[in-house]
Amino acid sequence: MPDSLVPKTVSVLTEGYGLARLKVDALAGLTVAIVALPLSMAIAIASGVTPDRGLYTAIVGGFLVSLLGGSRVQIGGPAGAFIVLVAATGARHGLDGLLLATAMAGVMLVAAGYLRLGQYIKFIPYPVTVGFTAGIAVIIFASQLRDLFGLTLPGSEPGPIVEKIGALGRAADTLNGAAVLTAALTIGIILALRRLRPHWPGMLIAVAAASILVAVLHLPTETIGTRFGGIPRGLPLPTLPPLSFEKAAAVFPDAVSFALLGAIESLLSAVVADGMTGRRHRSSMELIAQGIANLCSALFGGICVTGTIARTATNVRAGGTSPVSGMLHAIFLLLFMLLAAPLASFIPLASLAGVLAIVAWNMIEKPAFMALLRSSYGDAVVLLATFLIVVFRDLTEGIVVGFALGAVLFINRMAKSISVGETKPLEMLQVMSGEEEHPLIADDPDTVIYRISGIFFFGSAATVASVLDRIADQRRNFILDCSEVPFMDSTAANVIEGTLRKAERTGVRFIITGANTQVRRALYQHHVRPPRVLMRASVQAALETIRSENIA
């Protein structure tokens, strides 16, 4: 089995795993579980499902991500980035459709891992990821306004953000002061502890304090118990979601979106973990683990699983050194369900909304967002287009449009980076011959040398073609130096083949110098090869060839 498809758990156990590391990982796992407990329920509620399904996701998915993953410290579970997609899918297709889409996404991720597609995630432009994440954060925050202010809406809450804000504004007279107080208390405790006691589990302490306040003072605000009836004690039995061809076809686009976002989110989280630990993750194995985790999460009634940056960073900072800490985090969450599930009924929804408001604020990479706005016009356009489309249209459209604009921007930059021009003066091109230096055909009126510098591809082909077309038949000898061309695509090779045809018609000798292996392969595939053209290692070698033939 290739090393890239070996889980990191196997590597850790092969190195040797003792009691000392287990103690450290157990403490880290407990720390992460304390953070994940309120967050998993909050994300599930915001996603339109019951809070227990968030815990199922963190327990089943989190355990498998750590057990099978390609990162030593990755923590899996429900993620805020999925809230909008999961909620929309559930609204369109119901819970059965949501579970089926999650399972299908898992199969896609496993296939992507075995096909080694993880390496291509890195080609998503940075402005796209920043704009996408910021857009999701805005949507998450907007989705929590109802519970933050305890508003009562006549009917279901609209999905599109403009309609949502309008409906919430019309319901402003139903504002619940107890909910506002609970949310403010939660946010205030989290921010205060983050500043004064950064190593304390601020989210759990804040939710616990708000729950006690609501219970003791009998504040009139919704809780998990009043809306959902609490959470069960333990995991359900695994069950296959109802499957039919029609249903699978209907949820297929949602499954693709789940798989794409899951791959991006998990691999970005793994990269962040690499930067914190100095290790390197195995992207293909990470995708396989994410796929299996999503498939099994759906079987247990959970929602989408992905690597989570915040919980992974918490694991690293808490001292987690191996996948064991992630597996233990899932076990600790399971113990909570078994032993303390009734306590969850007292958690106010306004408190969980406050937690997600903090999460949304932290998701926005504010320094990066401002830096990209100032960096260049192109990056700013990609960033804002992605951000606005995600917020006002659709997440998948935002990624596609942002990636397309990023690709066009890259092509434009590469096209401008290439240069082509005549090398001067020829007197500088010399070669050793015996004990003396001899200039090689310096100022030879029958020879012209042109050098191409940069990546020669379809974006720059038209510019280079116009230059070559003007000079290909002006001299007896035409030397095209490609020593500074690291890459050439088929469009560029076809341009050179056209120049060669023109040279052949007019009797011009065509010599290509300095072409590396990839450039030669591209040229040969377009029939730019000997004897039609001479290939030499350098301009000096080409000039020596011309000189020797002239002497002869």
TrEMBL record:
UniProt key word tRNA processing: no
GO biological process: transmembrane transport
UniProt keyword Nucleotide-binding present: no
Transmembrane segments: 26-46, 58-91, 97-117, 124-145, 175-193, 200-219, 255-275, 287-310, 330-359, 398-415
Keywords tagged on the record: Membrane, Transmembrane, Transmembrane helix
InterPro entries attached to this UniProt entry: SLC26A/SulP_dom, SLC26A/SulP_fam, STAS_dom, STAS_dom_sf
Any single GO CC term annotated in Swiss-Prot or TrEMBL for this entry: membrane
Compartments, record wording: Membrane
Domain of life: Bacteria
Chief localisation class: membrane
PROSITE patterns named among the record's database cross-references: STAS (PS50801)
Any coiled-coil regions, as ranges: none
All residue ranges annotated as the STAS domain in the record: 437-546
Membrane topology: Multi-pass membrane protein
Protein name: Sulfate transporter family protein
Species this protein is from: Sinorhizobium fredii (strain NBRC 101917 / NGR234)
